[in-house]
Amino acid sequence: MGRCILGLTADEGKRVCNLLLQRMDLLWSGLMELVMLACGKYSLVHEFFKKVQKSSIPNALIYKVLVNTFWREGKTEEAVLAVKNMERRGIVGSAALYYDLAHCLCTSGRCQEALDLIEKICKVAKKPLVVTYTDSGNIQNAVYIFNQMRNFCPPNLATCNIMLKAYLEHGLFKEANELFNKMLDDGNHISRRSDYKFRVIPDIYTFNTMLDASIAENRWDDFEYVYQKMLRHGFHFNANRHLRMVLDASRAGKGEVLEITWKHLEQEDRIPPPPLVKERFSMMLEKEDFDSALACITTNSAGESQAFCKSAWLNLFEENDQRFRKDTLMRLMHEVRVLATQSNSPNPVLQNLLISCSDYNRPRVKVLGFKQT
Question: Which residue, 8, 79, 129, 186, has fewest beta-carbon neighbours within 10 Å?
Answer without folding.
Answer: 8
